[in-house]
Amino acid sequence: MEIWLVVFFGLEYIVRLWSAGCRSKYMGLWGRLRFIRKPICIIDLIVVVASMVVLSVGSNGQVFATSAIRGIRFLQILRMLHVDRQGGTWRLLGSVVYIHRQELITTLYIGFLGLIFSSYFVYLAEKDVVSPDGKKHFASYADALWWGVITVTTIGYGDAVPQTWMGKIVASCFSVFAISFFALPAGILGSGFALKVQQKQRQKHFNRQIPAAAMLIQCLWRCYAADKKFHSEATWDIHVQNKDEAQPSSGSTVLPTQLGKLLLSLSSLHHCP
């Protein structure tokens, strides 16, 4: 299975490199080199080369002895990037974050302030407390900050627990306040994704209606233009001439001559330093 995957990715890379010349900026040798320098192409080349190295060395179901080979084998995980080669997922995420950047910055800023102050108050209340196992769980402010991060993220390892009543009160208030603010970004991003997807669907539906509307307008205009009672100069009637009118008049050559002189003067002005 591994061999078939390497062959597939290798052939796919060669076909993409060959077909890149369809675009004008990738034509020729230098165009192909410009195509190879694209980030996604560099990643694909690394994946193919790493897979070939892994197959050539062989593992026989065992972990490789050298760390270099293990690192090369890790590069095979980059195959997952083929799922979203165009980067649409990251562009969507970036656009949602950019649109709601003000709300995200505000909530994270307030939550970070709550984390800093609450961790400090817990440290003041618990710095001299010794647990039953003879250890100080809040011996430094870094320990209190670690406890605050674990509490905010609702992980709760339980390695550090406030022992005093003051520490428990601060921890309770902090849990209600800070967790609420740190949970807001998830709701903001969720609603932003929903609105963005809805906007894309609406834009796609609107784009499907444009050709139909343009065709309807063109058909209606042709119906009006083909009507004999319609005397607008915007139709082709002004280009239809009778046999008697088709003969060029003496003044008809004046306009081309004057137009030629005008174009000649404009070209001379264009080439003047």
From TrEMBL:
It comes from the Eukaryota. It is a multi-pass membrane protein. The chain crosses the membrane at residues 40-58, 104-126, 138-157, 169-195. It is found in: Membrane. Keywords: Membrane, Transmembrane, Transmembrane helix. Residues 1-200 form the Ion transport domain. One of its GO terms (cellular component) is voltage-gated potassium channel complex. GO terms for molecular function: voltage-gated potassium channel activity. Its main location: membrane. Gene3D superfamilies: 1.10.287.70, 6.10.140.1910, Voltage-gated potassium channels. Chain C. InterPro entries: Ion_trans_dom, K_chnl_volt-dep_KCNQ, Volt_channel_dom_sf. Pfam families: Ion_trans (PF00520). PANTHER family: POTASSIUM VOLTAGE-GATED CHANNEL SUBFAMILY KQT MEMBER 1, POTASSIUM VOLTAGE-GATED CHANNEL SUBFAMILY KQT MEMBER 4. This is IKs producing slow voltage-gated potassium channel subunit alpha KvLQT1. It comes from Lutzomyia longipalpis (Sand fly).
